[in-house]
Hints:
With 484 residues, the protein is mainly α. The protein contains 20 helices and twelve strands. The strands form five sheets. Strands 1-2-3 form a three-stranded parallel sheet. A three-stranded antiparallel sheet has the order 4-5-8. The chain has a two-stranded antiparallel sheet with strand order 6-7. The N and C termini lie far apart (82 Å).
Amino acid sequence: MAPVPRLRFAPSPTGYLHVGGARTALFNWLYARKHGGQFLLRVEDTDRARSTDASTRAIFEGMEWLGLDWDEPPVYQGANLPRHQADARRLLDAGAAYRCFCTAAELDEQRSAAEARGEAFRYDRRCDRLTAEEVARRVERGDPYVVRFRMPEGETAWVDMVHGRIAFPNKDIGEGDFIVLRSDGTPIYNMAVVSDDIAMAITLVMRGDDHISNTPKQILLYQALGSPLPQFAHLPMIHGTDGKKLSKRHGATAVGDYRHLGILPEAMNNFLALLGWNPGGDREVMTRAEMVELFSEDGLSRKAAVFDPQKLEWMNGQHLMAMPLDALAPRVAEAVEGAGLATAADLAARPDFFRLLLELLRVRARTIDELVRQAVPYLRDALDFDADAVAKLWLKDPAQADALLGASREALAGLSSWDAAAMEPALRAAAEGMGVGAGKLFQPLRLALTGVTATPGMFDVLMLLGRDRSLARIDAARARIGAA
Length: 484
Ligand code: GLU
């Protein structure tokens, strides 16, 4: 039986969870969930100067928001220092590594000499030629040393899940015999990663393309430590719409920023899933369960993926429209409360109103923020009038505008029931009575009711506002026109 896949996401806590990291986390998670495997989290906090607790928290929050749950307590790389050192010592004991006593000055000299010859620097292995007695003597004396991996001849290759076979001639890997343990006893990055991936029994390492150059070193370390190799999958880089590597210049790159802009985690996941994966056909909009079902390594792409914020907004609109109303309601309620427009309790006390508001606005908005902005006229008494619309629809011909609003008011006030079936004929008759088309009557009325010109349908607006508020707003508009 094939072993249960074990994957990990291994962020360095030196900033927020950015889009590229979240994409990598999601792909690992999707693969694990698809194959009944385990998804683990490892915080690579060995860079003490740059790692912060705030960043670790931000990464956890981002993952939780996206619903990328991990199956075991997070591993903190920094806590594994003794094992990293023990593994480096195992390399020494196995003869796969040796102690190097070269000082910084000596190495600089070697580097300058290589430069003068027009060659790339490679460590000249002078310490590998020291006798065992000499090494013992220097260790005894307390000379500082690093541990270097002894690079074998030949080449190092693997079959990448995304790229197929990748091979590096060993002579081109790094600067020759690379360091695994610094003179202060701390491991270099590749040593720590391999030691941890072995200890965590990781079977598939899925990460960004930018790690391809680390992989041959890591494979050599696995081999020297006598551990089975995991599979590797290197995911394509993410570019902006200008074809350049995604960076702050392209706008928001932190997942949390999109959260605060009113993007739904469902849409964010769906959008991220398409950065380097194609589910087949022209399928794009998917729930998380559908993504898990469809996820396949065959759909992984090698080509750089393009991060297009407009597509993210579009995707968000699709999810806003399609998600169950019960799932949407609490999130909008939270945003409405956050904007100080109403409390969640107010909304809960008016369930029919809130449901209608959501139904009407979710098809017209692409983000929760936009939905909340559009909801303002129905939640707050004071209206913000669109000055251009006021000038055009009311003040160009104030007498006519007042008359149209007066006729609308009369028609609406006379209704025996407040519903669209009754409103429509009454307002059409009023327009006819004024000798204008219904549109001509609706425009100033819509402005009076909402302050703006782009809203849901006229009758829906009237239903949302209810009789009293609708009539009061018409009266206020007429007073305003009269006073103007
Ligand atoms: N900590 C590394 C990074 O943030 C990831 C290492 C890995 O996935 O092997 O890029």
